[in-house]
Write a structure and sequence with these properties.
Elements: H1 2-5, H2 9-21, H3 25-34, H4 38-44, H5 51-63, H6 67-76, H7 80-89, H8 94-104, H9 107-120, H10 123-132, H11 136-145, H12 149-156, H13 162-174, H14 178-187, H15 191-198, H16 206-220, H17 223-233, H18 244-253, H19 257-273, H20 277-293, H21 300-320, H22 324-335, H23 345-358, H24 362-372, H25 375-378, H26 383-394, E1 405-407, E2 414-416, E3 444-446, E4 453-455, H27 456-465, H28 468-473
């Protein structure tokens, strides 16, 4: 080795060639560099493994003005800061510099990129790379100076310190922006101030502010803040009562499930009143599941309303499958509580008459047709069905196919399939998610998605048809 280092240029060349022939490329490159034979280093560069050799080669390329080659070699030698510098200073290629910073998370490189963008007047990009380079104070100052606080706040995301969030909150506070002040006081865990601003937002920001306010109260665990937010939701602060769903979300956040259940019933009633049956069903179903998970008894009113909504939603499914008898039985159940569906009384009663008549339940068809012809509903009857309904009433047919009976799953007493309260044991009976019928002990299954009970034979039939699953769960 010492003999090689003392050799003449010719000896260097011969030694390097021998190393190269023996595939000792790093040693060959080392000797070529001593001989200043950079061209030969370039020829074997793809075989080099030593970062030091790449860096030495890159420095020579830079001296010779071969900046692209220098950048590639610096990067291969893991000297990322110099690779970034070359792209910014000589190649004027910020895109490549940004790529290297993003792939390597080079702190010094990020600072250089930030300085480059700042000089260009691209303050948003400069702020981004100041944050990457751990210079949050400089990034904040730049954001404040150039009205880029939203960009800065978005860049720091959820990984910043409480001091960072506090600085942003105070910035917005000084500029009279209550929503942003509340959001960042919440992130800084200054909950009293956060809520005080969130309940002062203008009307167009109330929805977003309330979502954050509920999060604030849920995290703070302070009765005073809870009562303050409830007062705001009830309209006692600004005279404007807020939608009941916010009160529901608040109770859920506080794990006050009984209060949430009462509120869910109110929300579902509002949805039912305006004809949003699927929305009402989903609210009650979600609350039903949460109460079960917490081991809390389901309120009777909630269970009854959910049963009615579920029955009504099932009707369309069975009509599409040409099971008109089942659709008729479900509609009879719904029509017997028609006051719960005030937006569509005439439509539901009409559907009930049509499905009952089609299924041979003529007595039921007559009963609901007579109801439809009352003065308060008559004008709302679809002209398509009006003559048929009048005919059913004028020429009554009181024949009725009897409903099948099955044993009560609690006491075994026989009762009609659609009856959900046993006259013998007085129990309210679980019903099948597919048919709305009361459950049977010997035909019991549960939906794997929601754990609701289902008659196994009926559930199997629907799943095989691939219709029920998509209708309900997607």
């Amino acid at each position: 080795s010492s003999g090689i280092t003392q050799s003449t240029g010719k000896q260097y060349k011969e030694a390097a060639m021998l190393y190269e022939k023996g595939h000792s490329y790093d040693k060959a490159a080392h000797v070529y560099m001593k001989a200043k034979n950079w061209h030969k280093v370039s020829d074997i560069l793809a075989h080099i493994t030593s970062p030091k050799i790449y860096v030495q080669y890159a420095k020579n390329c830079e001296r010779e003005g071969k900046f692209k080659e220098a950048s590639r070699a610096f990067e291969a030698g893991k000297d990322y800061d110099n690779a970034i510098r070359i792209n910014l200073e000589h190649l004027r290629n910020p895109k490549e510099a940004v790529r290297i910073v993003q792939e390597t998370q080079s702190v010094e490189g990020a600072r250089e990129v930030a300085r480059f963008f700042q000089n260009l007047g691209d303050y948003g990009s400069a702020i981004q790379f100041l944050v990457v380079s751990k210079r949050n104070e400089e990034a904040f100052a730049l954001a404040e100076e150039h009205n880029q606080m939203g960009q800065y706040a978005e860049i720091i995301g959820d990984d910043a310190t409480y001091e960072d969030y506090l600085a942003i909150a105070r910035h917005y506070e000084a500029r009279g922006k209550p929503l942003q002040s509340g959001i960042y006081y919440n992130k800084a865990q200054v909950y009293d101030k956060a809520l005080s601003y969130l309940i002062k937002v203008p009307p167009n920001e109330v929805e977003e502010a309330l979502d954050v306010a509920i999060e604030v109260v849920g995290k703070a665990h302070k009765d005073s803040l809870t009562h303050q937010l409830i007062d705001y939701l009830m309209g006692e602060i600004d005279g404007v009562p807020k939608a009941a769903r916010y009160l529901f979300n608040l109770y859920m956040s506080l794990k006050q499930y009984r209060e949430a259940a009462r509120t869910a019933i109110i929300i579902a009633k509002e949805d039912q009143t305006c004809g949003s049956y699927r929305a009402g069903h989903d609210v009650l179903f979600d609350m039903y599941q949460k109460l079960l998970q917490q081991g809390i008894k389901i309120p009777t009113e909630m269970a009854h309303n959910l049963m009615l909504l579920h029955s009504y939603i099932l009707v369309k499914t069975h009509v599409k499958r040409n099971n008109h008898m089942r659709a008729a039985r479900l509609l009879i159940r719904v029509a017997n509580s028609i006051s719960k569906f005030p937006s569509h009384i005439a439509q539901i009663l009409t559907s009930t008459v049509v499905e009952c008549y089609r299924s041979g339940l003529r007595a039921s068809a007559f009963s609901f047709a007579a109801m439809l012809l009352r003065p308060e509903y008559r004008s709302s009857i679809d002209p398509k069905w009006k003559k048929k309904i009048e005919q059913i009433v004028r020429k009554p047919d009181k024949s009725e196919e009897e409903e099948g009976e099955d044993p009560c799953p609690q006491c075994g007493a026989l009762l009609p399939q659609m009856t959900l309260e046993c006259g013998e044991c007085k129990n309210y009976l679980p019903y099948c998610i597919v048919t709305g019928r009361h459950m049977l002990k010997e035909d019991w299954s549960e939906c794997p998605h929601c754990t609701w009970p289902a008659l196994y034979s009926e559930f199997q039939s629907f799943l095989n048809a691939e219709y029920f699953f998509f209708f309900f769960f997607f």
